[in-house]
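Hi R.,

As promised on Friday, here is the backbone we talked about, encoded as C-alpha cells. Could you run it through your design pipeline when you get a chance and send me back a sequence?
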C-alpha cells in the first residue's frame, strides 16, 4: 500500500468513527452492540408477581403490586457490613466476611422464585463465563434471599446449579448464597436501594431485576439492570471497582473511551475520548508507516551503493 492510499484509508476510518458518534443515540448504541437497559431507577424491570397473575393494573400500565418495586441508585453508598446471615452450609456469616480483597457482585433474589430470579442468575453466569476473571480469585458473587423463610438447603441447591453452569473447577469459594432475618435483609436492601414487596394475591415477591457491583471495601460502585448483562460492562465495572488491580492495558483503553452511565446502568461510548483515542492511534499508525518506509529506503540505498561504486570505476 502506498503512502497516499494509507492516508486515504485513515481519513475514511476517522470519518466513519465521527459519523457514529455524531449519529442519534439509538443508532450509536446499535453500532457498539449495546442492549436496551432500564430507566434511571431501574423501574422498567418487571417483578415475578406481574407474570400472568391477573393483578390489577394502574393507569401507568404497571400492575399495582409493582408500583413500589425497582432500584434507587445509591452510588458510593456502603452496605451494612455487620448484617448477619447464614450461608448455604448453615454457617453464620456477616457481609464483612466477603469484602476486603476483591470486587463483589450482589444479587437480591429468592430461591423458590418461579421465573425472574433464575433468569437473572443464569444471565449473570452466562456473562461471566467469557471473562478471563475467575470467581474466588478476581471477584466474588453473593446472592442474598429476600425471603426470610428460606433455608440454607435451598441456598445450597441454587449454588450447585450456578456452579454447574459456571463450569470452572475451584471457583466454589467465590460463590456465596445467603439467607437471613427480616432485619438483616431489609438493612441490605435499603442500603442498595432495592425495593420489593410481597403480593398476597399471587403469593410471590414482586421485585426488580439486576445486580449491584460493590468495591472491595463494600461501597456501591455500579448497577446493572435486567436479566442479561454485557460481559464488557461487567469486566469494565470490575476493573474500576478493583482500583485497576485487575485487568489489562486494553481495559484501560476501553475505560478511556467508555464511561458508566447511571441513567442506563451500563457503559456507553464517550464521543470525544473515543475520537481522541482514534486520533492518537492514527498518528501512531502513520508514524509507524512512515518509519517503515524510511527504513526500507535506507536499506535499498545501502544495497545499491556497492553497485554504483563499481560502475563509477
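Update: got your reply. Pasting your designed sequence below so it's all in one thread:
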Amino acid at each position: 500500500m502506498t503512502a497516499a492510499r494509507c492516508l486515504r484509508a485513515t481519513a475514511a476510518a476517522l470519518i466513519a468513527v465521527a459519523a457514529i458518534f455524531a449519529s442519534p443515540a439509538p443508532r450509536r448504541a446499535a453500532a457498539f452492540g449495546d442492549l436496551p437497559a432500564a430507566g434511571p431507577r431501574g423501574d422498567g424491570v418487571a417483578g415475578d408477581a406481574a407474570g400472568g397473575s391477573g393483578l390489577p393494573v394502574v393507569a401507568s400500565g404497571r400492575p399495582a403490586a409493582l408500583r413500589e418495586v425497582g432500584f434507587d441508585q445509591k452510588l458510593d453508598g456502603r452496605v451494612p457490613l455487620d448484617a448477619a446471615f447464614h450461608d448455604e452450609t448453615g454457617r453464620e456469616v456477616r457481609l464483612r466476611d466477603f469484602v476486603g480483597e476483591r470486587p463483589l457482585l450482589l444479587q437480591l433474589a429468592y430461591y423458590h422464585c418461579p421465573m425472574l430470579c433464575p433468569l437473572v442468575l443464569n444471565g449473570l453466569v452466562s456473562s461471566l463465563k467469557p471473562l478471563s476473571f475467575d470467581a474466588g480469585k478476581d471477584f466474588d458473587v453473593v446472592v442474598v434471599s429476600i425471603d426470610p423463610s428460606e433455608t440454607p438447603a435451598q441456598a445450597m441447591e441454587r449454588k450447585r446449579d450456578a456452579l454447574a453452569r459456571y463450569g470452572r473447577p475451584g471457583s466454589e469459594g467465590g460463590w456465596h448464597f445467603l439467607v437471613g432475618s427480616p432485619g438483616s435483609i431489609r438493612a441490605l436492601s435499603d442500603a442498595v436501594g432495592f425495593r420489593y414487596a410481597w403480593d398476597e394475591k399471587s403469593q410471590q415477591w414482586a421485585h426488580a431485576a439486576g445486580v449491584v457491583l460493590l468495591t472491595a471495601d463494600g461501597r456501591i460502585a455500579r448497577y446493572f439492570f435486567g436479566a442479561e448483562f454485557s460481559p464488557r460492562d461487567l469486566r469494565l465495572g470490575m476493573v474500576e471497582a478493583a482500583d485497576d488491580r485487575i485487568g489489562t492495558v486494553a481495559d484501560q483503553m476501553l475505560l478511556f473511551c467508555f464511561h458508566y452511565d447511571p441513567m442506563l446502568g451500563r457503559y456507553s461510548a464517550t464521543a470525544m475520548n473515543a475520537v481522541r483515542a482514534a486520533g492518537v492511534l492514527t498518528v501512531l499508525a502513520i508514524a509507524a508507516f512512515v518509519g517503515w518506509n524510511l527504513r526500507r529506503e535506507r536499506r535499498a540505498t545501502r544495497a545499491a551503493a556497492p553497485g554504483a561504486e563499481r560502475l563509477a570505476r
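One thing I noticed while checking it: The chain has eight helices and twelve strands.

Thanks again,
M.
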